[in-house]
Amino acid sequence: MSEQKNGEVRIGVYVCHCGANIADTVDVKAVAEYAATLPGVVVARDYKYMCSDPGQELVQEDIRNLSLNRVVVAACSPSLHENTFRGAAERAGLNPFFVQMVNIREHDSWVHSDREAATEKAKDLVRAAVRRVYFHKPLEKRRVPIHSEVLVVGGGIAGIHAALTVANSGKKVYLVEREPTIGGHMAQYDKTFPTLDCAACILTPKMSAVKAHPNITLWTYSEVVSVDGSVGDYKVVVKRKPRYVREDLCVGCLQCIDTCVFKEPKFDDEFNMGLSKRKPIYIPFPQATPKVVVIDPESCIQLKTGKCKKSCLEACVERGAIDFDQKETYEEIHVGSIIIATGFQTFDPRRMPQYGYGKYPNVYTTLEVERLVNASGPTGGQVVTRDGRVPKSVGIILCVGSRDENTNRWCSRVCCMTSLKLAHLIKEHTGAEVFIFYIDMRAAGKGYEEFYQRVLNEGVHFVRGRVAEITDWALDPSEEGKLVARVEDTNTGFVRRIPLDMVVLAVGLEPQPDALNVQRLFGIGCSMDGFFLEKHPKLAPAPTYTDGIFIAGVCHGPKDIPDTVMQAGYAAAEAIALADTGYFELEPNTAYIVEEECSGCKSCIPLCPYQAISFNEEKKKAFINEVLCKGCGTCVAACPSGSIKQNLFEDEEIFSEIEGVLAYAQ
Amino acid sequence: MEDKPVATDKLSTSRDWEPLIVAFFCNWCTYTAADLAGVSRMGYDPNVRVIRVMCSGRVDPQFVLDAFAHGADGVLIGGCHPGDCHYVEGNYKALRRYLLLKRLLRELGIEEGRLRLEWIAASEGEKVSKTINEMVEQVRALGPLRLTRKFKEWDAELAALEAEAQSEEVAAHA
Question: Is the Cβ–Cβ distance between B133 and B97 less than 8 Å?
Fold first, then answer.
């Protein structure tokens, strides 16, 4: 490194102890001492917490006093503190892109236990960074403007809360929901734990507020079909499915439903989990928002055969809201950021045949029982079995499709509390003996443990054990005509047979069946379990790795309503902050053409997924539009003449890094 | 370590041969997964040195060849799963180059197991640890590549041949 292309290179190397996180496994003193011997290094220090104010001050002092013009920080992952040290450099008057991070925590001390090997690795990585930083250049961050409009996908409680929060800040919001109404799962619940507030009473005012809000454009029965662009300007196309009823004309009088040629409801009512029937023309539930009827093309005679006397049309002849010729339409919008709140599906207990769901009519899921206890539900709030009896004994089985190697490994977090709530409600409605079969009771949350104690005191029986099976095979007369739960009660050490009239399966929460499509559509990540991936599990649980896209609610992982609302508010705050700032700073890692070397072969042009590369016919050279370039570097790797360079990832930088980590092996 | 270090910025202590693997991890999936492996303390062999690139599509085949030429015993490329690329399709470009590069390496006499491309999503910390351990094991079984030493041997061989040719020439003229 005798050649000093960038003037005299003066490098400062800073090795962080991170308390004991790094220093316990890596000999940080030895790394710093070694770094001091490397060419170009003027000073090398180790310090307890580099990211602390005194740590940053150390770097700034050295930049000023020792005229450093390069900084290498060996600490944690660049995703955590690269910006911290760039900021420190900038405050000391150095271009922030003269800083290079070395990841000796996540990639070294935290994954290795052999102190010697970990120290050697740290030295290798520091050497590579020292060699690399030599080639760094001063760069400027690019700023892109931010559209203030925000798209919210999903109209459950998460989407509703996020949309209202953003709208209240004065920004325009598009709320897209694929069902005919907003409300999501929360609209189906009867009461909410632990306060036993009526879910509808607290949700429906928010639904109405969404509909009435001047800043919210609500598109129900609609789906996002394409997303282009990036933070600040996402171009989104929304498909609006035909509901065969004109939203602008329907007033929700519901006369069309009364006059439908089907005198009796005949088709499974999705909102009531199939426990009641609806007609082909219907409204999902009385408080549906918007209060607009919808015609199901799968069951409507007119839409299926074209041969119906269309009595609904006659009922609506004055307003003319019914339109059998409605076609799907597409809306294109531009938004600055997107909040994804697409929710969950509940576990299908048919996957655990030992519990007899679908085989024994009196085995229910928690969601079905929510509808049964609800006053506007299929039975008007009567908890009765499918054969019309009031149950005398009810068993609730926890962790169905949760905490189970054979189905889902995660805890669904809400089932314990939901079951306690349902136990209380069932007891209240029927006076039945209620058994809860559990592995562990998890009641962490404000007022939750107190609710658990309350239900304990109400005389609900808690049996600790995973139920082996539900059977209708009676062994003695007391079991005749009943379902029997076979379970090992691990508190007493006995295998028990408990006869029950009704079994409730506390089904777990799962990602939506099409979560993978949504993930790809928006270009975000998924965790191993299929829920959407946050940027940081602790410090950024709503942002994603894609700038300008945030997640809220159970699509990110199981959580209850308070946590969902909190995350939705947080996602909204992030979106508002982005819009209020008005711009977003992008990494200056774009590619550019060295014109003198470009041979005009055009091999780079088709490689760019963003059409950022064009060909200048006059000069016979390629040209990269830096505004469109996202900085992947694919064209750089492909250029046969090496005439495309990528800022921050120039060939010299990477080659020197490769040779740096290997210098020892030569 | 048999070869004496020549440049000033090399470690002075000596080490027994251990497989040395250079890894190119994309910023969005595999590098993040490696961070996750760290946060979750999923230990793995300390034989890998990770170089961060924005996308696996940035991995120029020359990076791989350069790594081998400078003493790497194995090279690992990590990118997002097909369909998940942060840059839409950079990982497909990486795959295309990888397949061609594998053929080239075969021609050069570098064993297949020394180069590996793996799709590792940001959530797959476990896969980072598993892949690295597997690869270290595999490369350990293959033994050292030592291209740098071979280069010197070949240089010496060539020099000897040239010297021989020259002396023959001198003899012929004499």
Answer: no
Contact, A435 vs A458, CB < 8 A? Answer: no
Q: What CATH superfamily classification does A3-139 receive?
A: Lumazine/riboflavin synthase (3.40.50.960)
**B51 is in which domain, residue-wise?**
21-143
CB atoms within 10 A of CB A284: 21
Rounded to an integer, the average pLDDT of A282-295 is 95
Q: Are the beta carbons of B58 and A34 separated by less than 8 Å?
A: no
Domain A345-510 fold is: FAD/NAD(P)-binding domain (3.50.50)
CB contact under 8 A, A666 and B52: no
**Nearest CB to B57: which of A632, A655, A657?**
A632
Q: What pLDDT digit, counting tens, does each position of A397-453 carry?
A: 999 999 999 999 999 999 999 999 999 999 999 999 999 999 999 999 999 999 999
Residue type, A424: H
Q: In terms of domains, do B80 and B138 share one? A: yes
For chain A, give the mean pLDDT.
95
Number of structural domains (chain B) is: 2
Please tell me which residue of chain B has the smallest CA distance to A37.
B9
Counts for chain A of helices (H) and strands (E), in that order: 16, 34
d(CA A234, CA A369): 41
Do the Cβ atoms of A632 and B115 come closer than 8 Å? no
Q: What is the pLDDT along chain B (174 residues), one digit of tens a residue?
A: 334 333 444 443 445 789 999 999 999 999 999 999 999 999 999 999 999 999 999 999 999 999 999 999 999 999 999 988 989 899 999 999 999 999 999 999 999 999 999 999 999 999 999 999 999 999 999 999 988 888 888 899 999 999 999 988 888 887
Cβ pair A585, A141 in contact under 8 A: yes
* Residue range A591-647, CATH number: 3.30.70.20
pTM of the entire predicted model: 0.87
Q: Determine whether the interchain pair A107/B38 forms a contact, defined as Cβ–Cβ distance below 8 Å.
A: yes
Q: How far apart are CA A198 and CA A210, in angstroms?
A: 19
* Token pair for A108: 């070294």
pLDDT at A659: 94
Q: Is the ipTM of this complex over 0.90?
A: no
Residues whose CB falls within 8 Å of the CB of residue A200, separated by 6 or more in sequence, listed in order: A187, A287, A376
Cα-based angle A638, A640, A641 (whole degrees, multiple of 5): 125
Residue A378 one-letter amino acid? P
Nearest to A662 among B35, B43, B67 (CB): B67
| β-pair partners for B21 | B48, B74
Which residue type, as a one-letter code, is found at position A469? E
Residues B118 and B157 in one domain: no
B56/B91 same-domain check? yes
Residue A211 has a CB neighbour count (10 Å cut-off) of 14
- Residue at token pair 């090279």: B75
Helix (H, G, I), strand (E, B) or coil at A164: helix
Question: Nearest chain A Cα to B29, which residue?
Answer: A525
Residue A5 pLDDT more than 70? no
Average pLDDT (A348-357) is 97
CA distance A349 to A363: 10
**Cα distances (angstroms) measured from residue A374 to each of A380, A451, A645:** 7, 20, 64
pLDDT given for residue B118 in this prediction = 97
The reported pLDDT for the residue numbered B15 is: 59
Residue A143 corresponds to which amino acid? R
Select from B20, B28, B66 the Cβ nearest to the Cβ of A545. Answer: B28
pLDDT in tens, A159-180: 999 999 999 999 999 999 999 9
| DSSP H helices in A191-348 | 199-212, 255-259, 301-305, 311-315
What distance, in Å, lies between the first and last C-alpha atoms of chain A? 17
- pLDDT value for A525: 87
Inter-chain residue contact A663 with B32, CB threshold 8 Å = no
Distance CA A70, CA A87 (A): 14
